[in-house]
Amino acid sequence: MEAKAVHSFHLSTMVVGDKLGRTGPSSSLRMSSGFVKPKKFQGFVSHRLSLLQRSQQRTVPVVVACSSYNNIPASILETGSFRDPLDEEMILKSKSQEIEPYLNGRCIYLVGMMGSGKTTVGKILSEVLSYSFFDSDALIEEEVDKTSVADIFKNYGEAFFRNKETEILKKLSMMRRDVISTGGGAVVKPTNWKYMHKGISVWLDVPVEALARRITKVGTNSRPLLHYEAGDAYTKTFMRLSSLFEERSEAHANANARVSLENIAAKLDQKDASHLSPKTIAIEALEQINGFLKGEDGC
Ligand SMILES: Nc1ncnc2c1ncn2[C@@H]1O[C@H](COP(=O)(O)OP(=O)(O)O)[C@@H](O)[C@H]1O
Ligand SMILES: O=C(O)C1=C[C@@H](OP(=O)(O)O)[C@@H](O)[C@H](O)C1
Predict the structure, then answer these.
(1) What sections of the chain are H helices per DSSP?
(2) Domains of the chain listed by start with CATH number
(3) Among 6, 115, 175, 228, which is disulfide-ready with 211 (CB 3.0 to 4.6 Å)?
(4) What class of enzyme is it (predicted)?
Protein backbone atom coordinates (compact mmCIF):
# COMPACT_ATOMS: atom_id res chain seq x y z
CA MET A 1 0.00 0.00 0.00
CA GLU A 2 1.21 3.47 -0.74
CA ALA A 3 -1.25 6.29 -0.87
CA LYS A 4 0.10 9.74 -1.22
CA ALA A 5 -2.59 11.74 -3.00
CA VAL A 6 -5.64 13.04 -1.19
CA HIS A 7 -8.84 12.76 -3.19
CA SER A 8 -12.28 13.61 -1.99
CA PHE A 9 -15.20 11.67 -3.30
CA HIS A 10 -18.84 12.52 -3.66
CA LEU A 11 -20.22 9.97 -1.23
CA SER A 12 -19.02 9.97 2.30
CA THR A 13 -15.56 8.84 3.26
CA MET A 14 -12.18 8.14 1.89
CA VAL A 15 -9.05 6.77 3.42
CA VAL A 16 -5.74 8.46 3.08
CA GLY A 17 -2.87 6.20 3.99
CA ASP A 18 0.81 6.55 3.36
CA LYS A 19 2.77 3.80 4.97
CA LEU A 20 6.05 4.87 3.44
CA GLY A 21 8.03 7.50 5.14
CA ARG A 22 5.44 7.88 7.88
CA THR A 23 6.81 8.26 11.33
CA GLY A 24 3.80 8.42 13.60
CA PRO A 25 0.13 7.64 13.17
CA SER A 26 -0.13 6.94 9.56
CA SER A 27 -3.58 7.41 8.20
CA SER A 28 -6.82 9.16 8.71
CA LEU A 29 -10.42 8.84 7.73
CA ARG A 30 -11.76 11.86 5.93
CA MET A 31 -15.36 12.82 5.50
CA SER A 32 -16.52 15.10 2.75
CA SER A 33 -17.84 18.47 3.89
CA GLY A 34 -21.15 18.44 5.69
CA PHE A 35 -20.45 15.28 7.65
CA VAL A 36 -19.06 14.96 11.15
CA LYS A 37 -15.75 13.11 11.20
CA PRO A 38 -16.21 9.85 13.11
CA LYS A 39 -13.69 8.83 15.75
CA LYS A 40 -13.54 5.27 14.59
CA PHE A 41 -14.23 3.13 11.58
CA GLN A 42 -17.42 1.97 13.32
CA GLY A 43 -18.82 5.49 12.90
CA PHE A 44 -18.27 5.52 9.21
CA VAL A 45 -19.62 1.99 8.88
CA SER A 46 -22.95 2.89 10.40
CA HIS A 47 -23.11 6.03 8.29
CA ARG A 48 -22.35 4.05 5.13
CA LEU A 49 -24.86 1.37 6.12
CA SER A 50 -27.64 3.92 6.33
CA LEU A 51 -26.69 5.17 2.86
CA LEU A 52 -26.69 1.57 1.71
CA GLN A 53 -30.19 0.94 3.04
CA ARG A 54 -31.41 3.98 1.12
CA SER A 55 -29.63 3.01 -2.07
CA GLN A 56 -31.00 -0.53 -1.92
CA GLN A 57 -34.45 0.88 -2.64
CA ARG A 58 -33.17 1.58 -6.17
CA THR A 59 -31.86 -1.52 -7.91
CA VAL A 60 -30.33 -1.80 -11.34
CA PRO A 61 -31.03 -4.97 -13.34
CA VAL A 62 -27.91 -7.02 -14.01
CA VAL A 63 -27.85 -7.28 -17.79
CA VAL A 64 -24.47 -7.17 -19.44
CA ALA A 65 -24.02 -5.73 -22.89
CA CYS A 66 -21.92 -8.03 -25.04
CA SER A 67 -20.77 -5.22 -27.34
CA SER A 68 -17.86 -3.07 -26.29
CA TYR A 69 -15.65 -0.06 -26.96
CA ASN A 70 -18.56 1.99 -28.34
CA ASN A 71 -16.82 5.37 -28.28
CA ILE A 72 -13.25 4.40 -29.06
CA PRO A 73 -11.66 5.10 -32.45
CA ALA A 74 -10.89 1.92 -34.40
CA SER A 75 -7.25 2.97 -34.79
CA ILE A 76 -6.68 2.70 -31.05
CA LEU A 77 -8.47 -0.62 -30.82
CA GLU A 78 -6.47 -2.08 -33.70
CA THR A 79 -3.07 -1.08 -32.40
CA GLY A 80 -3.98 -1.65 -28.76
CA SER A 81 -1.68 1.26 -28.01
CA PHE A 82 -2.72 3.02 -24.84
CA ARG A 83 0.40 5.17 -24.62
CA ASP A 84 -1.17 8.53 -25.38
CA PRO A 85 -2.54 9.79 -22.05
CA LEU A 86 -5.60 11.26 -23.78
CA ASP A 87 -6.39 7.90 -25.36
CA GLU A 88 -5.98 6.26 -21.96
CA GLU A 89 -8.43 8.69 -20.38
CA MET A 90 -10.96 8.11 -23.14
CA ILE A 91 -10.72 4.34 -22.92
CA LEU A 92 -10.96 4.41 -19.12
CA LYS A 93 -14.12 6.51 -19.32
CA SER A 94 -15.69 4.42 -22.03
CA LYS A 95 -15.00 1.08 -20.37
CA SER A 96 -16.11 2.26 -16.95
CA GLN A 97 -19.35 3.65 -18.36
CA GLU A 98 -19.92 0.34 -20.07
CA ILE A 99 -19.57 -1.82 -16.99
CA GLU A 100 -20.77 0.54 -14.28
CA PRO A 101 -24.51 -0.28 -14.53
CA TYR A 102 -23.82 -4.01 -14.58
CA LEU A 103 -21.65 -3.91 -11.50
CA ASN A 104 -24.89 -3.02 -9.79
CA GLY A 105 -23.02 -1.21 -7.03
CA ARG A 106 -20.90 -4.18 -6.10
CA CYS A 107 -17.55 -3.38 -4.51
CA ILE A 108 -14.28 -4.13 -6.26
CA TYR A 109 -11.57 -5.81 -4.18
CA LEU A 110 -8.04 -5.55 -5.48
CA VAL A 111 -5.84 -8.40 -4.32
CA GLY A 112 -2.20 -9.18 -5.03
CA MET A 113 1.28 -9.09 -3.64
CA MET A 114 2.78 -6.17 -1.75
CA GLY A 115 3.65 -3.46 -4.23
CA SER A 116 1.48 -4.88 -7.02
CA GLY A 117 -0.25 -1.50 -7.38
CA LYS A 118 -3.53 -2.20 -5.56
CA THR A 119 -3.57 1.29 -4.09
CA THR A 120 -2.36 3.08 -7.21
CA VAL A 121 -4.66 1.28 -9.63
CA GLY A 122 -7.51 1.19 -7.08
CA LYS A 123 -7.62 4.98 -6.92
CA ILE A 124 -7.84 5.26 -10.70
CA LEU A 125 -10.67 2.72 -10.80
CA SER A 126 -12.57 4.43 -8.00
CA GLU A 127 -12.36 7.76 -9.79
CA VAL A 128 -13.55 6.52 -13.16
CA LEU A 129 -16.34 4.47 -11.63
CA SER A 130 -17.34 7.24 -9.20
CA TYR A 131 -16.79 4.77 -6.38
CA SER A 132 -15.17 5.55 -3.02
CA PHE A 133 -11.69 4.24 -2.33
CA PHE A 134 -10.63 2.38 0.80
CA ASP A 135 -7.34 0.85 1.81
CA SER A 136 -7.85 -1.98 4.28
CA ASP A 137 -4.39 -1.48 5.86
CA ALA A 138 -5.20 2.17 6.52
CA LEU A 139 -8.53 1.19 8.11
CA ILE A 140 -6.75 -1.27 10.39
CA GLU A 141 -4.24 1.41 11.38
CA GLU A 142 -7.11 3.75 12.19
CA GLU A 143 -8.83 1.13 14.34
CA VAL A 144 -5.68 0.34 16.29
CA ASP A 145 -5.33 3.91 17.57
CA LYS A 146 -3.62 5.17 14.43
CA THR A 147 -0.77 2.67 14.80
CA SER A 148 1.24 1.86 11.66
CA VAL A 149 1.07 -1.65 10.21
CA ALA A 150 4.76 -2.14 11.05
CA ASP A 151 4.12 -1.21 14.71
CA ILE A 152 1.01 -3.41 14.88
CA PHE A 153 3.15 -6.36 13.76
CA LYS A 154 5.88 -5.45 16.25
CA ASN A 155 3.67 -4.74 19.27
CA TYR A 156 0.78 -7.18 18.83
CA GLY A 157 2.01 -9.81 16.34
CA GLU A 158 0.85 -10.91 12.90
CA ALA A 159 -2.13 -12.97 14.17
CA PHE A 160 -3.65 -9.87 15.77
CA PHE A 161 -3.20 -7.95 12.50
CA ARG A 162 -4.82 -10.78 10.49
CA ASN A 163 -7.86 -10.84 12.80
CA LYS A 164 -8.28 -7.09 12.41
CA GLU A 165 -7.96 -7.51 8.64
CA THR A 166 -10.80 -10.04 8.63
CA GLU A 167 -12.98 -7.77 10.80
CA ILE A 168 -12.42 -4.88 8.40
CA LEU A 169 -13.22 -7.02 5.34
CA LYS A 170 -16.41 -8.18 7.05
CA LYS A 171 -17.49 -4.57 7.59
CA LEU A 172 -16.54 -3.58 4.05
CA SER A 173 -18.51 -6.51 2.64
CA MET A 174 -21.70 -4.75 3.76
CA MET A 175 -20.85 -1.66 1.70
CA ARG A 176 -21.56 -0.72 -1.88
CA ARG A 177 -19.74 1.29 -4.51
CA ASP A 178 -16.28 1.02 -3.02
CA VAL A 179 -12.95 0.05 -4.52
CA ILE A 180 -10.90 -1.66 -1.82
CA SER A 181 -7.15 -2.11 -1.83
CA THR A 182 -6.60 -5.16 0.38
CA GLY A 183 -3.37 -6.08 2.16
CA GLY A 184 -1.21 -8.56 0.25
CA GLY A 185 -1.84 -11.32 2.80
CA ALA A 186 -5.63 -11.06 2.81
CA VAL A 187 -5.91 -13.79 0.16
CA VAL A 188 -4.60 -16.50 2.46
CA LYS A 189 -7.60 -16.82 4.80
CA PRO A 190 -10.70 -18.54 3.36
CA THR A 191 -12.99 -16.41 5.59
CA ASN A 192 -11.69 -13.30 3.85
CA TRP A 193 -12.81 -14.73 0.52
CA LYS A 194 -16.30 -15.26 1.93
CA TYR A 195 -16.46 -11.48 2.41
CA MET A 196 -14.60 -10.48 -0.76
CA HIS A 197 -16.88 -12.64 -2.87
CA LYS A 198 -19.76 -10.32 -1.97
CA GLY A 199 -18.12 -8.05 -4.51
CA ILE A 200 -15.82 -8.60 -7.46
CA SER A 201 -12.21 -9.48 -6.79
CA VAL A 202 -9.39 -8.61 -9.14
CA TRP A 203 -5.90 -10.08 -8.82
CA LEU A 204 -3.08 -7.80 -9.93
CA ASP A 205 -0.54 -10.33 -11.11
CA VAL A 206 2.83 -8.61 -11.32
CA PRO A 207 6.16 -10.37 -11.97
CA VAL A 208 8.19 -10.67 -8.76
CA GLU A 209 11.16 -8.84 -10.34
CA ALA A 210 8.98 -5.79 -10.95
CA LEU A 211 7.58 -5.97 -7.40
CA ALA A 212 11.06 -6.17 -5.92
CA ARG A 213 12.25 -3.22 -8.03
CA ARG A 214 9.28 -1.08 -6.97
CA ILE A 215 9.62 -1.92 -3.28
CA THR A 216 13.41 -1.51 -3.24
CA LYS A 217 12.88 1.96 -4.65
CA VAL A 218 10.54 3.05 -1.86
CA GLY A 219 11.98 0.96 1.00
CA THR A 220 10.46 -1.74 3.18
CA ASN A 221 9.66 0.32 6.29
CA SER A 222 5.93 -0.11 5.93
CA ARG A 223 6.10 -3.80 4.97
CA PRO A 224 7.11 -5.75 8.07
CA LEU A 225 7.10 -9.14 6.31
CA LEU A 226 10.08 -7.98 4.27
CA HIS A 227 12.30 -7.18 7.23
CA TYR A 228 13.94 -10.53 7.79
CA GLU A 229 16.23 -11.54 4.91
CA ALA A 230 19.94 -10.82 4.71
CA GLY A 231 21.72 -9.36 1.68
CA ASP A 232 21.39 -6.29 -0.47
CA ALA A 233 18.02 -4.53 -0.57
CA TYR A 234 16.89 -5.80 -4.00
CA THR A 235 18.02 -9.40 -3.46
CA LYS A 236 16.47 -9.80 -0.02
CA THR A 237 13.21 -8.22 -1.15
CA PHE A 238 13.18 -10.43 -4.24
CA MET A 239 13.87 -13.61 -2.21
CA ARG A 240 11.17 -12.95 0.35
CA LEU A 241 8.60 -11.90 -2.25
CA SER A 242 9.35 -15.00 -4.32
CA SER A 243 8.59 -17.34 -1.44
CA LEU A 244 5.45 -15.43 -0.46
CA PHE A 245 4.31 -15.44 -4.10
CA GLU A 246 4.82 -19.20 -4.23
CA GLU A 247 2.87 -19.73 -0.99
CA ARG A 248 0.00 -17.54 -2.18
CA SER A 249 -0.30 -18.51 -5.82
CA GLU A 250 -3.26 -20.85 -5.28
CA ALA A 251 -5.04 -18.32 -3.07
CA HIS A 252 -4.73 -15.60 -5.73
CA ALA A 253 -6.56 -17.85 -8.17
CA ASN A 254 -9.76 -17.40 -6.08
CA ALA A 255 -10.14 -13.94 -7.60
CA ASN A 256 -12.92 -13.38 -10.12
CA ALA A 257 -10.60 -11.67 -12.57
CA ARG A 258 -6.86 -11.65 -13.19
CA VAL A 259 -4.86 -8.74 -14.52
CA SER A 260 -1.54 -10.11 -15.70
CA LEU A 261 1.08 -7.48 -16.49
CA GLU A 262 2.89 -10.00 -18.68
CA ASN A 263 -0.29 -10.50 -20.73
CA ILE A 264 -0.80 -6.75 -21.11
CA ALA A 265 2.81 -6.29 -22.25
CA ALA A 266 2.37 -9.09 -24.80
CA LYS A 267 -0.88 -7.51 -26.07
CA LEU A 268 0.82 -4.14 -26.46
CA ASP A 269 3.92 -5.66 -28.00
CA GLN A 270 6.08 -4.37 -25.17
CA LYS A 271 9.09 -6.36 -23.96
CA ASP A 272 9.06 -5.22 -20.36
CA ALA A 273 5.95 -5.53 -18.19
CA SER A 274 7.43 -3.16 -15.64
CA HIS A 275 6.97 -0.11 -17.88
CA LEU A 276 3.18 -0.30 -18.04
CA SER A 277 1.45 2.76 -16.69
CA PRO A 278 -1.07 2.44 -13.84
CA LYS A 279 -3.79 3.71 -16.23
CA THR A 280 -2.97 1.01 -18.78
CA ILE A 281 -3.27 -1.54 -15.96
CA ALA A 282 -6.57 0.01 -14.81
CA ILE A 283 -7.90 -0.30 -18.38
CA GLU A 284 -7.03 -4.00 -18.39
CA ALA A 285 -8.72 -4.37 -14.99
CA LEU A 286 -11.94 -2.89 -16.40
CA GLU A 287 -11.66 -5.22 -19.38
CA GLN A 288 -11.19 -8.28 -17.17
CA ILE A 289 -14.08 -7.21 -14.92
CA ASN A 290 -16.21 -6.83 -18.04
CA GLY A 291 -15.20 -10.36 -19.08
CA PHE A 292 -16.26 -11.66 -15.68
CA LEU A 293 -19.61 -9.83 -15.84
CA LYS A 294 -20.27 -11.22 -19.32
CA GLY A 295 -19.53 -14.70 -18.00
CA GLU A 296 -22.07 -14.16 -15.23
CA ASP A 297 -24.59 -13.08 -17.81
CA GLY A 298 -23.86 -16.01 -20.12
CA CYS A 299 -22.47 -13.88 -22.97
N1 LIG B 1 2.40 0.55 -12.92
C2 LIG B 1 3.35 0.95 -12.09
N3 LIG B 1 4.58 1.23 -12.57
C4 LIG B 1 5.58 1.62 -11.73
N5 LIG B 1 5.43 1.78 -10.39
C6 LIG B 1 4.23 1.52 -9.86
C7 LIG B 1 3.12 1.09 -10.66
N8 LIG B 1 2.06 0.89 -9.85
C9 LIG B 1 2.47 1.19 -8.60
N10 LIG B 1 3.77 1.58 -8.61
C11 LIG B 1 4.59 1.97 -7.46
O12 LIG B 1 4.84 0.80 -6.69
C13 LIG B 1 4.76 1.09 -5.30
C14 LIG B 1 3.69 0.20 -4.66
O15 LIG B 1 2.41 0.55 -5.22
P16 LIG B 1 1.08 0.45 -4.35
O17 LIG B 1 -0.02 0.93 -5.21
O18 LIG B 1 1.29 1.11 -3.03
O19 LIG B 1 0.98 -1.14 -4.16
P20 LIG B 1 0.13 -2.01 -3.13
O21 LIG B 1 -1.02 -1.16 -2.67
O22 LIG B 1 -0.31 -3.19 -3.93
O23 LIG B 1 1.06 -2.40 -2.04
C24 LIG B 1 4.48 2.59 -5.20
O25 LIG B 1 5.69 3.24 -5.03
C26 LIG B 1 3.85 2.93 -6.54
O27 LIG B 1 4.09 4.26 -6.90
O1 LIG C 1 1.61 -9.33 2.05
C2 LIG C 1 1.33 -9.17 3.26
O3 LIG C 1 1.17 -10.12 4.04
C4 LIG C 1 1.14 -7.80 3.78
C5 LIG C 1 0.97 -6.75 2.90
C6 LIG C 1 0.81 -5.36 3.32
O7 LIG C 1 -0.09 -4.67 2.45
P8 LIG C 1 0.30 -4.19 0.96
O9 LIG C 1 0.05 -5.35 0.05
O10 LIG C 1 -0.66 -3.06 0.73
O11 LIG C 1 1.73 -3.76 0.99
C12 LIG C 1 0.26 -5.29 4.76
O13 LIG C 1 -1.07 -5.72 4.80
C14 LIG C 1 1.07 -6.12 5.67
O15 LIG C 1 2.38 -5.59 5.68
C16 LIG C 1 1.12 -7.61 5.26
Answers:
(1) 41-55, 74-79, 85-103, 118-129, 136-143, 149-156, 158-172, 190-196, 208-218, 233-252, 261-267, 278-297
(2) 13-49+89-297 (3.40.50.300)
(3) 115
(4) transferase
